[in-house]
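Job type: complex structure
Entries:
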Amino acid sequence: MKNKTSAYIFLTVACTVVFGLLSCKTVKQYQKMYLNDAEMKLGARKIQRAEQNFQIYREGASGANGGKSGGGCGCN
Amino acid sequence: MADAVVTRIYSNFIMRILSLAVLGMYLSILSAFSQGNTDSSKYQNKKLQFEEVDFVASYYRQDGNNSAVTGGTGTEKLTDFTNTIELKMIKYDNKERKNQFKIEFGIDHYTSASSDKIDPSTISSASFDDTRLYPSLSWNRENEKRGTNVGITASYSREADYKSYGTGVNFRKTSADKNRELDISLQAFFDKWKVIFPVELRPPNYGTGAKNDNLRVDHTPRNSYTASLSYSMVVNKKLQVLLLTDPTYQRGLLATKFHRVYFTDGSARPENLPNKKMKLPVGIRANYFSGDYVVLRSLYRFYIDDWGMKAHTIEMETAVKFSNFISLSPFYRFHTQNAIDYFAEFSKNKLNRTYFMSDYDLSTLESHFFGMGIRITPPKGITGSGKLNMLELRYGHYTRSTALQSDIISLHVKFK
């Protein structure tokens, strides 16, 4: 149990650090024509909500996809 | 001839001056935008204003032959009709902060052939069909000058054997150049189950859970706590990435007591699982605009929990823009997972185990989900009045290695 908890913490911290270290170009507001397109929206869209809901019931994994992670329903 | 040459040189000179002036104006406007600071003197209407309404409807149906209610064998036929409506209102306060109020109401109606087998002696039990209601309220305050957004949420959900009260707080910080964003939210769900047993495994003088049954039925809590963290960043003019994680801790009745479990000696008991669970999903999303007409959306998720499950999920979606207003989006999703430590197939559970279950949703499996979506957003609205702003339709087919198959069709309309 202790090892698993350590693994969870390590994984979370490692991902956060790696991501933080990735340096990116500064993109000005007027250069965001493509990024501001509705199709470029990060995160799950509203129309995917029912799909994510059935997947929570039919599979063991949940969360980190813009949907529910647990609670609020009798799902896994 | 000389006059014509002089005139042409003069007109070229004027055109260049004009071009430079226009370019200068353009650059000064761009530099004003690029400063990223909000003009504090700009006027915002202080009244409560309508922002938009979203309506999402969905129909889902499935069939399979591994129902957990009947111990991992038997029909999994199920249909679910879902409707949600979400109203957004905004109000600017005296400090020019944008307050958004969101009211959502959802109603699902489902029929489940396997739930009907909780008590097969009845022609059609109360569990054959059910309606779930789930209203929620949220408030968010956005301070554009500081790049912050704080909010609170309250939710409720009710179905025949389940009640849930949810609450949450969230905080978002956007960088000055608006290229990076950190989002933190804490959520808690305080749920209560009605403990229902299959008819032959019910303790003496224990109720069925039906409304008209006055016999005692236990109600047991199940609480869930989630701390979500996401960080998004713009990588370049055409690529943006989001990293997200939702560590979740659950405590309470996590077993579904009307699930039968059959053992190697032929005996049966209700499902039994630990009363604690820790889940850690970590996901990364990347959206890339390829050329001028194609958007590639992708997600990878790794999931691990302390019941022994590890899972990987990949989603790919390509939005092809036929114009600025119509796009077609084929998608594919692949998921693979191993079984939890307590799973065994029908009649293969060993008697010496403390925890046991035969729910194939938590078994070793692979699934494929694919389909297509269409999105229409004309500038003057769908009907020309501008009110029906967006229409999206999406169909998907799901197959699982345990032979379960399902279909889902969803509709999303937005009014502004």
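Summary: The mean pLDDT of chain A is 78. The longest helix of chain A spans residues 2-21.
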